Automatic annotation (TrEMBL):
Residues 231-394 form the Restriction endonuclease type II EcoRII C-terminal domain. This is Type II restriction endonuclease. It holds the Pfam family EcoRII-C. Gene3D superfamilies: 3.40.91.80. It comes from Alcanivorax nanhaiticus.
Amino acid sequence: MEKLGQYFEGVAWKYLTAVDADPGKSNQHEFGGLVKAGFRHFLGDPGEETYKFPCRFMLLSEDKDKSASVDGVVSWYDSRRGKSGRGPELRLYYVSNEVTDLISEGMFFLIAKTTSGELILVFCDKGSSEEAQLRWLFGLDSTTHAFSGKAIDENQIKASWSARWVLDELGIELFEDDSRYLDLMLTRFGGAFPKTREFSALALELSPEIQPVNLPDTALVSLMDREESLFRQLERHFVEEKLKSGFSDVEQFISYSLSIQNRRKSRVGYALENHLEFLFKENGVEHIRGAETENRSKPDFLFPGLPQYENHDFPDNGLTILGAKSTCKDRWRQVLSEAGRIKRKHLVTLEPGISGNQLDEMEANDLQLVVPSSIHETYKSEKREWLWNLSDFIEHVRDKQGKYLGE
């Protein structure tokens, strides 16, 4: 379990007003109202000075192509300093950048002060999955067009996988001072990154406590957590070694950085499929992974198998499709076009707090979302009853298996 107090001191949040979003209406590039929200406690009292804070501006979007991040500096100062007879009015000044050029009235806006002294300014659409995830992570209550604020309880704990996921979106990597298995991995994998199946197999080997039949939801999250921890240990080792040897030029550095990001993105999806495959086998569920159906589409999982799918005498109701995506964003729609014989689609994800609008759209398209039980708490209470967990899905396909295969 991770404690938010390790990473954050406090947050403030609001919905942007027209003046906030359009500096032309106020001739200012600044945010006021933070003092009333109690945020001066985290930024200090500059008096006659101007405090400078390193800052990361972030625009989060359900469409990854529209997300943006820019590093900069913001200034905390008294806009009335030197004016006698008037009390201080503290404001946070920023310089226009790629992110602030894209903000608009009504957006959700959050400022977070990190324990390292940095500020993170995050913007996202009102009612979006990103807003829901931030609200869950920080435990935010109602929001208006005026700032609200809160200190982060140093003992506040969130579910490990979900917290890791949202923090990663904010560009904060959880540091785990755990290298217990580094020597084992270097020896077993020959000093190189292994294939994802080998990583998944090691995660399973080092997780003897899981109960794949009795507690498949807990087992899935535990295996993903274990593999993520192992991967980050090995990755950190290789990155540190590379930094010691250095780079020949900027292009080599950029190429290396991109390779790290691409490996992270591709690996987690394969890891999810690997661990699901293990759990289905342990639960006696007939399935095939990555089989090619019509139009050369390849569903992640097809139940009970390809022979039944290709046999048009086999009842359509006896077939099931499951897509597996560690994050949904807009990619969940890809599942809708797969396995045309099967009207109702299923999709398993590890993404916390998907917005109500997206869930409604999934339901309208006859897609059932499957989310491990421990992540359900990140969703709005009125949507949790509609969600399935992995146990629900396994029971569903086993019932079909008994009915249509006589097993």
